[in-house]
Design brief:
alpha/beta, 5-stranded parallel sheet, 19 strands, 18% helix, flat
Length: 184
């Protein structure tokens, strides 16, 4: 194999992560809504950082070139519903006590605006962080580089395009603060 073909081959398979693939395959055998505490233990065997007391209602969907074990960190006593997807080009941190509704999407990769003949320019990775005790409703989309403050609530279907402060209710497309919430 010449150098350029070998380099191409290596770059094409670098995201396979065989250990994670095996664990994910075994996890897929557990039906959604069951194995709520078994699934996190299984994922920990695959190298994921998932805190004690965290419950996963369904399998996690992980994409991107980043290593799941290095890029994703889920705190203690979190709840993730079915169909949650993480794009792991950059780091994603869910702090302790975070609740995530069905089919939420966390993105870390975006693109600069390119030339007129190809607008999806150079890719950029930006981290995502969700603070302690935050709650994201079903089908929330969190865009790259966004932080959601502790104790914040993000309404179902919202698209979070910029930081959400702590202890607020936010909703909409794009998500905006609707009102402050009690901080204690």
């Amino acid at each position: 194999m010449n150098g350029s073909v070998k380099s191409l081959f290596v770059s094409e398979i670098e995201g396979l992560h065989p250990r994670w693939r095996l664990v994910r395959l075994l996890g897929a055998l557990i039906p959604s809504g069951t194995g709520l505490r078994l699934r996190p233990r299984l994922y920990r065997l695959g190298g994921l950082r998932i805190g004690r007391g965290t419950v996963l209602s369904g399998s996690l969907h992980l994409t991107g070139n980043g290593s799941p074990a290095k890029c994703l960190s889920i705190g203690q006593n979190c709840y993730l519903n079915e169909g949650v997807a993480f794009n792991l080009g950059g780091d994603i941190v869910l702090e302790d006590g975070v609740s995530v509704g069905m089919e939420c999407l966390f993105l870390t990769v975006t693109h600069a605006i390119g030339r007129p003949t190809f607008r999806a320019g150079q890719s950029e990775c930006k981290p995502v962080r969700v603070g302690c005790g935050a709650w994201l409703g079903a089908r929330v989309t969190v865009l790259p580089g966004v932080s959601i403050g502790e104790g914040a609530v993000v309404g179902a279907g919202a698209v979070v395009t910029r930081d959400i402060p702590p202890n607020v209710l936010a909703a909409g497309v794009p998500a905006r603060m609707l009102r402050a919430l009690e901080a204690t």
